[in-house]
Write a structure and sequence with these properties.
Mean pLDDT: 81
Radius of gyration: 44 Å
Shape: flat
Strand order of the largest sheet: 5-6-7-10-9-8-11
Number of helices: 17
Order of helices and strands: HHHHHHHHHHEEEEHEEEHHHEEEHHHE
Number of strands: 11
Strand content: 15-25%
Helix content: 25-40%
Low-confidence stretches: 1-7, 31-37
Distance between the termini: 141 Å
Structural class: alpha+beta
Length: 485
């Protein structure tokens, strides 16, 4: 092979020269380092020179920026105009808050408005008051001394008329916050000083329990508003007033709902009451129970359930208890109490032999199961009252020497007593039978009174019960009917 040929050259010297020769990759790195070093030097040398101008935006990008600036307040999803100032003002107009007030009210340097009120003549203010009802006119005159001087005593004289009694009560109810040591008397239409301040308690009906000195306290022609709890127990509306006043304004205005609860016994019945405030209304639960013997005849059932004094049930009931299926359901529950068989004679011997052959034995402490008629919970359609009838086993403590268990009928009533402002309220008037415009299934469509009450005190819930109408046929016969007795 000649010396000009490009093939490999034999020999040890040629091998060393080819092994020690620098590679192309190393040469490339060296060249790159040289170029980087040269660029840095060039940048340092041209640091005082201005930067080159930025290239102009592409037409498409410029169009996009112009469109975003023009439609900055437009929602891309809904296409609506998004102006935050307009949104805030619309919220203030569409959803007004009762607690909202102008900022000038809290301004200590704000000028009083009596000068503006005094600019109008008394004739003009009387003309304005002529468009108001007696309650609002008296409130306007009571607002300030300047308005009182312009309107005079005429608005208050209108409240004293007999036909404006309800307007007078509405005006006096608004003064509750400023009179913690007084209580509004509805028969008199005025405030009286409380005589048992902070110590008011519900007493039996035969005990004179005066909460304030009133000339109409024992006037049968003008009695104070009250409601029958059970036989021998009456709850005056004043206790609802005191409880709700303490809840709204403070403890010094009345009493707590926990202080109203009581336990008592009368005529063989045991009673217990408890109260709860829920959403600005006073709820009450009254549990009544008594021992019941098996196999009672209808006359014995009446003696057990009704009082001989007024022929009303011993347990708590609303004014509509005669209409509907409340009393028939109680009598049906009494018939389910297990009764022993008559073992006398051949027929009794036959039953005894059959029971022994089948392994059955009469147990007086057996669990009583109610039927589909008396088991469901009843709700009065005309007032906020719910009833539950049960038959349980209870201990009879009348004989201390031995432990005796007997069957007991338990009737529990839950009711809504209202907000405690006036006795003409919707709930209070309905449970006393003085209003016909109340629909309990419309007011408590989603959740019953019993569920609300029991959930507030215990984590356990009532057994699953159907809530049905106490008067499904809507018959209002009262005492003319025959099923109630």
């Amino acid at each position: 092979m000649s010396a000009e040929s490009p093939g490999p050259k034999p020999g040890f010297r040629a091998f060393l020269s080819s092994a020690l020769r620098s590679k192309k990759s190393r040469q490339t790195l060296r060249k790159a380092n040289r170029s980087t070093t040269d660029l840095r030097l060039a940048s340092r040398s041209s640091a005082d020179e201005p930067p080159p101008p930025m290239p102009a935006l592409a037409p498409l990008q410029a169009h996009r920026l112009k469109y975003e600036q023009a439609h900055a307040h437009l929602d891309s999803q809904l296409g609506e105009y998004r102006d935050f100032t307009t949104m805030i003002h619309s919220l203030g107009l569409l959803e007004p808050d009762d607690t909202y007030g102008p900022a000038e009210i809290d301004n200590a340097y704000r000028k009083p408005g009596e000068e503006d009120i005094a600019k109008l003549s008394p004739e003009m203010w009387n003309y304005i008051a002529g468009f108001l009802n007696p309650t609002d006119a008296a409130s306007l005159a009571f607002a300030s001394i300047t308005l009182y001087r312009r309107l005079g005593t005429q608005p208050f004289m209108l409240l004293e008329r007999p036909e404006n009694y309800n307007y007078k009560i509405d005006f006096l109810v608004g003064l509750d916050r400023s009179l913690p040591h007084h209580l509004l008397c509805f028969p008199c239409g005025r405030y009286h000083r409380r005589t048992q301040e902070g110590q008011e308690r519900i007493r039996p009906a035969h005990v004179i329990n005066l909460l304030y000195n009133c000339p109409n306290a024992q006037n049968s022609l003008n009695p104070p508003p009250k409601n029958r709890i059970t036989h021998g127990r009456i709850m005056h509306f004043s206790f609802v007033q005191l409880t709700m006043r303490a809840h709204r304004f403070g403890r010094e205005y009345g009493i707590q709902a926990e202080d109203l609860g009581r336990r008592w016994q009368r005529d063989g019945w045991s009673f217990s009451s408890r109260f709860l405030i829920y959403e600005g209304r006073l709820l009450m639960r009254v549990k009544s129970q008594t021992f019941a013997e098996p196999g009672l005849v209808p006359s014995a059932q009446r003696l057990l359930l009704y009082s001989r004094e007024d022929y009303c049930p011993y347990f708590s009931a609303c004014a509509h208890w005669r209409d509907g299926e409340l009393m028939p359901a109680c009598k049906c529950a009494l018939e389910h109490i297990p009764k022993p068989r008559d073992t006398g004679g051949l027929q009794g011997l036959e039953h005894k032999v059959k029971d022994r052959l089948q392994g059955r034995q009469f147990d007086p402490h057996a669990l009583t199961l109610l039927c589909g008629f008396c088991r469901p919970m009843r709700r009065c359609p005309e007032c906020p009252s719910e009833y539950l009838i049960e038959v349980k086993i209870s201990e009879d403590k009348s004989s201390p020497r031995e432990i005796v268990f007997r069957q007991t009928i338990v009737v529990t009533r839950w009711t809504d007593l209202g907000d405690g402002t006036t006795p003409g309220g919707l709930e209070w008037g309905a449970i006393n039978g003085k209003r016909d415009d109340y629909d309990s299934f419309a007011h408590y469509a989603k959740r019953g009174i019993a569920s609300i009450f029991e959930a507030a005190f215990t984590a356990d819930t009532l057994p699953g019960q159907r809530v049905i109408s106490m008067n499904p046929n809507k018959k209002k016969l009262g005492e003319d009917g025959h099923d109630w007795y």
